[in-house]
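User: structure tokens for this one?
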Amino acid sequence: MNFEYGTPFVGRKLSLLQTFLERMGLRYDTSINFTVNLAEGEEILATGSLSANVLKCIAVSSNCPGQDFLAKVVTELQKEAFRQGRYHLFLYTKPQNGIYFSQMGFYPIAQIPDVMMMENSRNGLYHFLQTLGNYDCMGNIGAVVANCNPFTNGHRYLIASAAKQCDLLHVFVLSEEQSQIPADDRLQLVRLGTQEFPNVVVHPTSDYLISRATFPEYFLPKDANTNQIHCLLDLEIFASRFAPALGITRRFVGTEPFSAVTALYHRIMKSYLPSRGITVTEIPRLQIGATPISATNVRKLWLDEDWESLEPLVPPTTMTYLKTHKPAQR
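Assistant:
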């Protein structure tokens, strides 16, 4: 019995791993960049993988009852993550399996019937929420969550409209690095573009408001509505952890004429959050002429360096940024 390491596996090794995962009711996740197998010859006894700081595709053969193969695999994954300088780790699992990972130092963040999200810090989310600050506001507190890739006049209009309806508005800019503009730059552009609003505070989300890059589909049934499950887990984290910590009772979104996935998210939000005491207000998207402002279109114009067409779509601070930076390839 020995460990095998892939960065990631290819060829026959990958085929054997995929077959093993399918036998265990899982699917191989293409975002994986490191895998460890515990094997005997070509027989895989246990496996686990990493995608950045997320543990994925962990499985132990049903032929190995009573043996601590799960702990061995998780330990190897942690060692590799630490070697990469990643110390804050996450995993997603079926709720009934949470007890096994709790015994290895992982703690629940939130769960819905199909998925539990865990981290290797006892109070990681609590401490993150503490870093957002204390606000002496007992009035009407709202929230906007957006990617802002880049920050447009449409985002600014949504925030300005929401701020008029609140005593305090929290704006969360997604921290995932899956955009043409780095997370820190997006955060700074939103702060610069909203500094005239005295009741608006802008925050990162860290790893807690979930990205498509880290969300697990590999252990869900093939016929599962993964977009819906992803939305529900994200909304549960917001409703159970973010909103109580900051006193948020309202969530604002813009109308979504372009993305079917985002439109689905909004429909689920309008059904789910009111049951948790959070009102959802949808604000019509700002239009230039008859066309709603779209960050996708802004990025296209940026790539084409069409500054004349861009000017009415973005704040001056965003325009300055776009003129001095080239789009990253995503």
